[in-house]
Structures are given as C-alpha cells and as structure tokens.
Amino acid sequence: MQASLSSPFRGMVLMAGCMLVLPVMDAIAKYMANVEGMSPGQITFYRFFFQLASVLPVLLALNGLSAFSAKRPWVNLLRGAIHGAASLMFFMAVKYMPLADVFAIYFVEPFILTAMSAIFLKEKVGWRRWLAIAVGFGGAMIVIQPSYEVFGLTALLPVACAFLYALYMFLNRAIGEADSPMTMQTMAGIGGTLFMAGALMAGTAAGDADFAISLPDSTLGLGLLILLGAISGYIHLLVVRAFRMATLSVLAPFQYFEIIAAVALGYLLFDDFPTPSKWLGIVIIVGSGLFILWREQKRASPAPLVAEAG
To answer: Rounded to an integer, what distance in angstroms lies between the CA atom of residue 308 and that of residue 310?
Structure first.
C-alpha cells in the first residue's frame, strides 16, 4: 500500500517540476530574440533541431531503429509541423510581449481542444463546459485587451498558438495509440525541424525580419539554444513518465504552474509583472480550465488537456 501511494506523489512532484522548468525555455527564446538579436523563426528551428539532437541518442538506445518505424508516418510528421508552427507563434509573441501575458492567453488551449472534440469527434460537451469555455475566453479577452492596445495584432499570436497546439493535441486524440510515445516524439521532432527549415527559407525570401537566418553570435547563445532544445525534449519525456505514475485528474492542474514560473521569470529577467486587470483575467482562465478538467474527469474522458507551451 505504501508503494502504491508513493507513486502518484512522485508523479505530482515530477509534473510540478516539469511545469516550473518549461517556461525557462520561453525565457531563453525571449532573451535570444531581444538581447542576442536572433529571429524567432531561427530560434524555433534551433529548438526542434537541438531537441531532436539531444534526445535521439536516448530514443535509439531505448528503442533502436524502431523509433523511426511509425505506422502512420505522415500523420506524425504533420503533428510535428503543426507543433513547429505553434512554437513559432509562441516565440514570436514572447519577443514582443511579457511572458506572463503570453502564457495566460495561451491557456485558452484546453477550451479550443474541448470545442474541437465536441464538433469533430462528437464527444458530448454539456452546457456547463460550454459556459466555462465562454467564460475562459472572456478572461483571455481581459488579458488581450490592454496588450492589443500596445502590441496590436501581435497580442493575438498566443491565440493562434493555442489553436495550433489544440489541433496538435486533437490529432493525438484522433489517431489514438497506433504508435508508441517514443516513435511519435521522434517523428514529431523531425516534422518540426523540416517545417521550420522550410518556414525559414520562405520567410527569408519574403524579407521578413522575424525569419532572418543566423548563427549564434556568442558561446553563451549557442549554449542557451542547446539548453532550449534539451529542455523541450527531456521535459516532454518526463511529463510522459509522470503520467505513468499518476492519473490525469491528479496531474493536469499542475499545468498552471507554468504561469507561476512565467510571472517569476518575467519579473526577474525582464522586469515585467501583470497588472491587476491581467491577474483577474489569469484567475478566470485558470478557474475555467480547472472546471472543464473536473467535468472531463467526471465524465471519464481519457484525453489529456495538459498544455506544453513554446
């Protein structure tokens, strides 16, 4: 009995730690864009390239060449491309906006995923969850409105990111368990890297500064980019590990620890701190998300709502 109780607790600790570390990745992206002068497109490419480079030896050691033997390779590559586009939107947003604002707006993702599942997979969503979705979007509008006045359409980038990541999660839900998590992780990394290589070339040809191709200007910059990829790859694997220790209903609320870490990093590194109105929006978004999670679990829905920003 003692061992069975300790495993969920270890899962909770692991999940909390992962959610507190993930925003470091986005703080690195903001630093590289604003201090090192690297374009968000280039940062996103390095994020997937170094993610793949850092975790591939482990994946090959654990699974051998079977890590590449996906039963649905094109779907998995598409998942990676969508994840790449979502990360690009997020990194473009954090270049211009405070970290906490971006994270708060991004957490409309569970609402979008729930709505997509109801519309396309015909999953039953009652009026309470539809109401929570509407209230959650209202909270996002409270955060977006002052940001929109300052940053214009850039303030909508986290919403675009949330939509793309919800689509990524929707594909996970739709294709089920045809491939192992390790294979899906490997193929998604390849898909994200290839997508960003194409996006960089297209953006550069169009003369968009947010897609300028460059190498790191310093050893520190190179080290930070490698760390960015390693955090992305290994934290994802640790989240999978946490879900083997404890149930979704126990772990999913810890996703909101990302906002705590984002507020702390934004204040310590970039002197950004949410205004009272933005805190109100954050509370509404978190409360609505937790309510949807509770209703999902009450109806025994198996699909996770955990978001991975950036």
So the answer is: 7
CA distance 154 to 172: 28
Compute the CA torsion angle 236, 122, 141, 85 (nearest 10 deg). 40
Taking only Cα atoms into account, the Rg of the chain, rounded to an integer number of angstroms, comes to 19
Mean pLDDT of the chain: 86
Which residue's entry shows tokens 């310093």?
A: 218
Helix, strand, or coil here: 97? coil
Q: Which of 172, 155, 41 is nearest to 113 (CA)?
A: 172
Query: Residue written as tokens 């793309």?
Result: 164
Q: 53 vs 48, 58, 185, CA distance in Å? A: 8, 10, 12
pTM of the model: 0.87
In the predicted model, what is the mean pLDDT of residues 283-308?
71
Q: Comparing 95 with 243, which gets the higher pLDDT? A: 95
Can you give the pLDDT at residue 1? 38
